[in-house]
UniProtKB/TrEMBL annotation:
Uppermost EC category: hydrolase
Protein EC: 3.5.1.2
Designated name of the protein: Glutaminase
Taxon lineage: Bacteria, Pseudomonadati, Pseudomonadota, Gammaproteobacteria, Oceanospirillales
InterPro entries per record: Beta-lactam/transpept-like, Glutaminase
Reaction catalysed by this enzyme: L-glutamine + H2O = L-glutamate + NH4(+)
Gene name linked to the record: glsA
Length: 320
C-alpha cells in the first residue's frame, strides 16, 4: 500500500515538472555542458531501506558540490571538531558558492559548503591520507551509496584544466595558512571528488544513509559516526543550497545539498532520503526542477522540520 502510494506520488511530481524547461545547464566546466537539459530523475529511499525511483533515475552524473558534506563528515571524523573549526567556519556566507572571500579576523572560509571551505576540507584530507585520499573518499561514498563508485575522467580533466577560480581560492587559503603547502595535489583531489559518478538512485540511498543516523538502510553498513552526521546535516540545513539556503530552510525545511551537475539531495531526518537530478540550473546554481519537486514533496508530505504534520522523533519524545 505504502509502496504504490509513494511511487504514484513521485511519478506525479515527475510529470508535473518534466515539461517545465526553465534554467540553463552549467557550462563553466565545459564537460558539464554536454548534459542533456531534459534529463530528469527522482528517487526516494526510506529509512527502512525501500527505494522508489522515476524518470531518468539510472542516468549517471557527477556529484560536484554534493560531495562536500561527505568530505566534511570524513574530516570531522579524522581530525575532530576543534581542529576542523580552526580551518573552516559554520556560518552561511550569503554569497555565491565560488565567491572569493574569507571571514574577517579568523581568515577562515565561511563554511564547508562553499568552494573555499570545501577545498580546505579536502586539503586537510589530502594532508592526512596523501595518495590514499581518493580511495578513502571513494570507499566511504561507495558505502553510503551501497555500490562501488568511480569518477568521470572527462569531467575531472575538464575542471582541472579550467578551474582557475578554484585555484585562485586555494592559493588565497594558502596565503592565510588555512591549507597546507601542497595546494596542487589537494586541488586535484577536490576536482576528483567533485567528479564522482552516481545516479539518482545512488544519491537517494546516500541521502537515506544520512537520514538513518549514518547507517546505510539498504546494506545495513555503518558509514558515518553519529556526531559527524549531526554536524553534516546542520551545515546542510544552513548552507547547503548556497545563497538560497535561507529561503530553502523557510520553504522546504530540511537539510539539503545541491551540485552544479543538477543534483539535489534532501534529508528528512529518520524518515527519507530524497534525490533529484535535472541539469537545468537557476542563477544561483541550484537545479530548478530539484527545487520544485522538493518544495512540493515537503508540502504534500508535511516534511518541513517545523511542520505540525511532522511527528518528530527526538530522544525526549521516545522516552517520555
Ligand atoms: N566542482 C564545482 C566547482 O568547484 C562544484 C561547484 C558546485 O557544484 N556548486 O566549481
Amino acid at each position: 500500500m505504502e509502496e504504490r502510494w509513494l511511487q504514484t506520488l513521485i511519478d506525479g511530481l515527475h510529470s508535473r515538472y518534466a515539461g517545465v524547461h526553465k534554467g540553463e545547464v552549467a557550462n563553466y566546466i565545459p564537460e558539464l555542458g554536454k548534459a542533456s537539459p531534459d534529463h530528469f530523475g527522482m528517487a526516494i529511499a526510506t529509512s527502512d531501506g525501500k527505494v522508489f525511483e522515476t524518470g531518468n533515475s539510472d542516468t549517471l552524473f557527477t556529484l560536484q558540490s554534493v560531495s562536500k558534506p561527505f568530505a566534511f563528515g570524513m574530516a570531522l571524523e579524522a581530525f575532530g571538531e576543534e581542529k576542523v573549526a580552526r580551518h573552516v567556519g559554520v556560518e552561511p556566507s550569503g554569497d555565491s558558492f565560488n565567491s572569493i572571500e574569507l571571514e574577517k579576523v579568523t581568515n577562515r572560509p565561511f563554511n564547508p559548503m562553499v568552494n573555499a571551505g570545501a577545498i580546505t576540507v579536502t586539503a586537510l584530507l589530502y594532508q592526512k591520507y596523501g595518495d590514499q585520499a581518493l580511495d578513502r573518499i571513494l570507499t566511504r561514498l561507495s558505502a553510503a551509496a551501497g555500490r562501488n563508485l568511480g569518477i568521470d575522467e572527462e569531467v575531472y580533466h575538464s575542471e582541472s584544466k579550467t578551474g582557475h577560480r578554484n585555484r585562485a581560492i586555494a592559493y588565497l587559503l594558502l596565503n592565510f595558512d588555512m591549507v597546507p603547502e601542497e595546494v596542487e595535489p589537494a586541488l586535484d583531489l577536490y576536482f576528483k571528488q567533485c567528479s564522482i559518478l552516481v545516479n539518482t538512485r545512488d544519491l537517494a540511498i546516500m541521502s537515506a544513509t544520512l537520514c538513518n543516523l549514518g547507517k546505510n538502510p539498504v546494506t545495513g553498513e555503518e558509514v558515518f559516526d553519529l556526531d559527524a552526521v549531526r554536524n553534516m546535516l546542520s551545515i546542510m540545513f544552513t548552507c547547503g543550497m548556497y545563497d538560497y539556503s535561507g529561503e530553502w530552510a523557510y520553504r522546504v525545511g530540511v537539510p539539503a545539498k545541491s551540485g552544479v551537475s543538477g543534483a539535489v539531495m534532501a534529508v528528512v531526518n529518520r524518515q527519507l532520503g530524497i534525490a533529484s537530478y535535472s541539469p537545468r540550473l537557476d542563477a544561483k546554481g541550484n537545479s530548478c526542477r530539484g527545487i520544485n519537486v522538493c518544495t512540493d514533496l515537503a508540502q504534500e508530505l508535511g516534511l518541513h522540520t517545523f511542520d505540525c504534520m511532522n511527528a518528530g522523533s527526538s530522544y525526549l519524545k521516545a522516552v517520555l
